[in-house]
Amino acid sequence: CPCRFPRLLPASTVRLDRRNISSIGKLRLLAEIHSLYLQQNKIEKIENLDSFPNLRFLCLAGNRIPRVENLRCLPHLSALDLSHNRIRELDTEELPRSLQILDLTGNECARQDGYRDLVVAALPQLLELDSQPVHGNAAEEKTGRGFSSSEEDEDEDEDLLPELGFPFTAEQDFFVDLQRELAGRSRRRRKETLQEHQERLAELWERRELL
């Protein structure tokens, strides 16, 4: 099952889908990450996501998750895909109130009587549930349309983070590797900026000498 909502992808994205990952490890703060793909793995518990305080998009589709938990630490989360897991009973108190799009199709909880009314009542900003539009909520009255990111969000997402080029497996502490990769990219960006600045200064001095 491919992850949904492709049109919503913010710029700062990390893809760890289909990597045979069995758990979400703990790591240091990664505030620049806005989208995280973890679909089609073997994850059994939602945990340690407080390392991504600015996360807006989370895909955990096609895992082995039995319950919704540990998501209230994501105050900016707008889109959540938990489709095709093993969730039997849904505790709506565990869902961030910021959610505008939620997908729980393929879970037993989504087939229970009163499920849709329960979720819609718990999430006042919800615009879409299981690929079906939600009408009459606070978000729709405020925006008059579906999900859209603000200009401020777009400005924050200017630097595109490309897909990671190394493998992750259940045996690896993959989040440690991720942290190292991001730190390395940050160092390279600073080095490139400094080099460009020095080259421009040298060019200015050359022009001054010619004058």
Automatic annotation (TrEMBL):
<dbReference type="InterPro" id="IPR050576">
    <property type="entry name" value="Cilia_flagella_integrity"/>
</dbReference>
<feature type="region of interest" description="Disordered">
    <location>
        <begin position="132"/>
        <end position="159"/>
    </location>
</feature>
<dbReference type="InterPro" id="IPR032675">
    <property type="entry name" value="LRR_dom_sf"/>
</dbReference>
<protein>
    <submittedName>
        <fullName>LRC46 protein</fullName>
    </submittedName>
</protein>
<feature type="compositionally biased region" description="Acidic residues">
    <location>
        <begin position="150"/>
        <end position="159"/>
    </location>
</feature>
<keyword id="KW-0433">Leucine-rich repeat</keyword>
<keyword id="KW-0966">Cell projection</keyword>
<dbReference type="Pfam" id="PF14580">
    <property type="entry name" value="LRR_9"/>
</dbReference>
<keyword id="KW-0677">Repeat</keyword>
<dbReference type="InterPro" id="IPR001611">
    <property type="entry name" value="Leu-rich_rpt"/>
</dbReference>
<keyword id="KW-0969">Cilium</keyword>
